[in-house]
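Title: Comparing notes on inverse folding

I've been comparing how different people in this forum approach sequence design from structure. To keep things fair, I'm posting one structure and asking everyone to reply with a full sequence. Here's the target:
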């Protein structure tokens, strides 16, 4: 830190403060509560579901940005897609890429019940292959990336050219549970996220910021 710099300004979250945070947002409706409960019954993999405050944040970002065309890479049981689609206008479109028929089968049921199936196109298959099959033109106003971490750099290079001017990409798990700052950890996932975070921060095609929501989000706007 430079000499005479102002003190760092942040608040550490403990369980009590996090529960306070969750209590002070628009409550989940019954459909979202049911989706969360069904996902929880899947066991340990349920940790992949988007956090409650993160889902609300995605919906607000899409609505505030008046986004009309969105892309999601990594859908799981569909909560993040549900949130994004709810932020879109009635003629907006969301394209979802995921490799699992099983988990996205759950997602489809809840999208249907929410009356959002007409806004969402799901493509099941290897996400990078599906992404490369999409038009290379700047098409998307909003992208949410929450897929296999070692492939983040490859996804990034396919995403940025497909963002409209001023389009926003939101990247999940950039803290890697805090492991990105633990120098002794050398597993492939941590190394990949560290390298990816450095890459985004240096990318002159975007303006970016990393924020402490859930497991860390990076927001990057196409310049």
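Reply #1:
Here's my take.
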């Amino acid at each position: 830190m430079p000499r005479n710099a102002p003190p760092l300004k942040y608040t550490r979250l403990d369980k009590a403060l996090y529960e306070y945070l969750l209590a002070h947002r628009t409550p989940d409706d019954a459909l979202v509560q049911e989706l969360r409960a069904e996902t929880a019954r899947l066991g340990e993999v349920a940790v992949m579901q988007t956090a409650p405050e993160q889902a609300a944040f995605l919906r607000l970002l899409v609505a505030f940005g008046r986004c009309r065309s969105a892309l999601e890479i990594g859908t799981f049981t569909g909560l993040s897609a549900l949130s994004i689609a709810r932020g879109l206008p009635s003629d907006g479109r969301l394209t979802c890429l995921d490799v699992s028929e099983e988990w996205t089968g759950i997602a489809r049921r809840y999208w249907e019940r929410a009356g959002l199936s007409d806004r969402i196109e799901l493509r099941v298959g290897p996400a990078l292959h599906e992404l490369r099959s999409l038009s290379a033109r700047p098409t998307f106003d909003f992208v949410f990336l929450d897929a296999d971490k070692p492939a983040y750099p490859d996804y990034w290079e396919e995403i940025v050219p497909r963002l409209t001017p001023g389009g926003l990409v939101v990247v999940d798990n950039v803290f890697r549970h805090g492991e990105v700052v633990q120098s002794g950890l050398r597993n492939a996932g941590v190394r990949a996220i560290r390298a990816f975070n450095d890459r985004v921060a240096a990318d002159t095609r975007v303006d970016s910021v990393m924020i402490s929501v859930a497991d860390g989000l990076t927001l990057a706007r196409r310049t």
